[in-house]
Design a protein that fits this description.
Helix content: 25-40%
CATH architecture: 3-Layer(aba) Sandwich
Protein name: Carboxymethylenebutenolidase
GO molecular function, one term: carboxymethylenebutenolidase activity
Keywords: Hydrolase
Distance between the termini: 33 Å
CATH superfamily: Alpha/Beta hydrolase fold, catalytic domain
CATH topology: Rossmann fold
Number of strands: 8
Largest sheet: 8 strands, mixed
Number of domains: 1
Strand content: 15-25%
Pfam family, one: DLH
Shape: globular
Order of helices and strands: EEEHEHHEHEEHEH
Strand order of the largest sheet: 1-2-4-3-5-6-7-8
Structural class: alpha/beta
Mean pLDDT: 91
EC number: 3.1.1.45
Radius of gyration: 18 Å
Length: 292
């Protein structure tokens, strides 16, 4: 496995590559010995670690990749899985940058720790569980504000995408945050977990609960063999969107025969065909809805 270290022009007040704000490799708990992770080069890109205003004025770390060319561009907020900001998430940012976007991945888990190098799932879940709904929405709002203040961003063309835990965040942001133009949610939970289940935060809502409130068009990309997101919950979300007359035109695509995490090229659940199709759909969705 070859790990690509991001390169770019760094402000001297920020950490250098050698002391990056983020774990440089892949999530230890999930990496597959047979995986062949995609590595996207950073030449002709500007790649940097920054801090943005998070919830309650927290100084939140974030990873940014963008084209080095001049001019304002559409921007994508990339929301991580439960493993935090490791190289797969950073690589996704660089992929968007190579498509002409500015991309930012906020470190939603920074207050509680870094799950990326961990192998103990209980410890990972404790960190993830500390990121409350209010905090996550506040951090996402802070990312929007930071992007709007940048000279390289077209502030009327901000999208959001996320994977697993981050896929849920996409649906919720599309329902509750202004300035989101469009979203792409990869296999994010749609309904509340069972009582006592992981991430079952008291009183919080889930995508199905806010189907009628979604204001930005969301493309949901889901796996037909996902053991954690049964297809009946996907159908429930479709029904919820239809009952609300689905004014945004949000859609859900299900890939038969593939498993949760099919886009994560460092995991054994990776499915190259579904991942490529989903990525093409994601890019087309953003461009169709003005994120460009």
């Amino acid at each position: 496995m070859r790990l690509l270290t991001p390169e770019g022009n760094f402000d001297p007040t920020r950490r250098t590559i050698a002391t990056s704000l983020f774990f440089a490799g892949y999530a230890s708990a999930a990496v597959s010995s047979c995986a062949s992770p995609v590595t996207t080069p950073s030449d002709e890109l500007i790649v940097e670690d920054v801090h943005i205003p998070g919830f309650n004025n927290y100084r939140l770390p974030a990873y940014v990749a963008r084209p080095s060319s001049a001019g304002r561009k559409g921007a994508i907020i990339v929301v991580n899985e439960i493993f935090g900001i490791h190289d797969y998430i950073k690589d996704v940012c660089r992929r968007f940058a190579r498509e002409g976007y500015g991309a930012i991945a906020p470190d939603y888990f920074d207050r509680a720790g870094d799950p990326a190098p961990m192998t103990d799932f209980n410890a990972i879940r404790e960190i993830v569980g500390a990121a409350t709904y209010s905090q996550v929405m506040g951090d996402t709002s802070g990312a929007i504000d930071w992007l709007k203040a940048q000279s390289f961003v077209n502030d009327d063309a901000i999208g959001i995408t996320g994977f697993c835990w981050g896929g849920t965040v996409v649906w919720m942001a599309a329902a509750h945050l202004t300035n989101i133009k469009a979203g792409v949610a990869w296999y994010g939970r749609l309904v509340s977990p069972e009582p006592g289940g992981f991430a079952n935060e008291a009183g919080r809502q889930w995508p199905y609960d806010v189907a009628a409130l979604i204001e930005a068009p969301v493309l949901g990309l889901y796996a037909g063999e996902d053991q954690g997101i049964p297809l009946q919950t996907v159908e429930s979300m479709r029904a919820g969107l239809a009952a609300a007359d689905n004014p945004t035109g949000s859609e859900i695509v299900v890939y038969p025969g593939v498993h949760h995490g099919f886009h994560a090229d460092y995991r054994d659940s990776y499915n190259a065909e579904a991942a490529a199709d989903g990525w093409a759909r994601a890019l087309a969705w953003f461009r169709q809805h003005g994120v460009r």
